[in-house]
Write a structure and sequence with these properties.
CATH architecture: 3-Layer(aba) Sandwich
Shape: globular
CATH topology: Rossmann fold
Number of helices: 8
Strand content: 5-15%
CATH class: Alpha Beta
Distance between the termini: 27 Å
Radius of gyration: 16 Å
CATH superfamily: P-loop containing nucleotide triphosphate hydrolases
Number of strands: 5
Length: 212
């Protein structure tokens, strides 16, 4: 069993996960918490190369099953090369997306079989799940509007998808929340950033047993 604490950040496009994480890091460092932050797909060299293939805007012909398997391959390499060693070293590992993204995007969004995705996740992670998942919830239209207004953000293949897919993805996350409410904590990402950071901090500190 790992000695560290694994947190995943999830949410629809434009939910602001990255901004919240950037604000949280100095707070955690002040507490003396040793933190590793990483992302999916990516995180390690092989994972980042797979990320380039998945998110390349020119790859619009990619089959949904191909997309899923690429995510799973990246997940496995990332886990064994970076995440598991950090957990064994007792670190707090914060991942920008993990297993729930496959269920929400490829399951609910693309319509692939949820049981098959669960099996692939289990296979790739040897059954590892986050100790805590922070789900940043936002109306799809608001999230996409944030992306459109942010000229610094990379435009990837998922940004070219229609509104319908993003709506299905959000419903997928809400379904996971209903199913695994003990692991997944819902954060209202439509609020001002300062409030979102404070709420996130409170949930994280409580789950980790840290003094506020």
């Amino acid at each position: 069993m790992s000695k560290g604490f694994l947190v995943s950040l999830e949410g629809p496009e434009g939910a602001g996960k990255t901004s919240v994480l950037e604000a949280l890091l100095p707070i955690l460092e002040e507490k003396g918490v040793e933190v590793l932050t990483t992302r999916e797909p990516g995180g390690v060299l092989i994972g980042e190369k797979i990320r380039q293939v998945i998110l390349d805007p020119s790859h619009t012909q990619m089959d949904p099953k191909t997309e899923l398997l690429l995510y799973i391959a990246s997940r496995r390499q990332h886990l064994v090369e970076k995440v598991l060693p950090a957990l064994e070293a007792g670190k707090l590992v914060i991942m920008d997306r993990f297993i729930d993204s496959s269920v929400a995007y490829q399951g609910f969004g693309r319509g692939l079989d949820i049981d098959a995705i669960d099996w692939l996740n289990q296979f790739a992670t040897d059954g590892l799940k986050p100790d805590l998942t922070l789900y940043f919830d936002i109306e799809v239209e608001e999230g996409l509007a944030r992306i459109a207004a942010n000229s610094d953000r990379e435009v990837n293949r998922l940004d070219l998808e229609g509104l319908d897919l993003h709506q299905k993805v959000r419903q997928g996350y809400l379904s996971l929340l209903d199913k695994e409410g003990n692991r997944i904590a819902k954060i209202d990402a439509s609020l001002p950033l300062e409030q979102v950071v404070e709420t996130t901090k409170a949930v994280l500190f409580e789950r980790m047993g840290l003094a506020k």
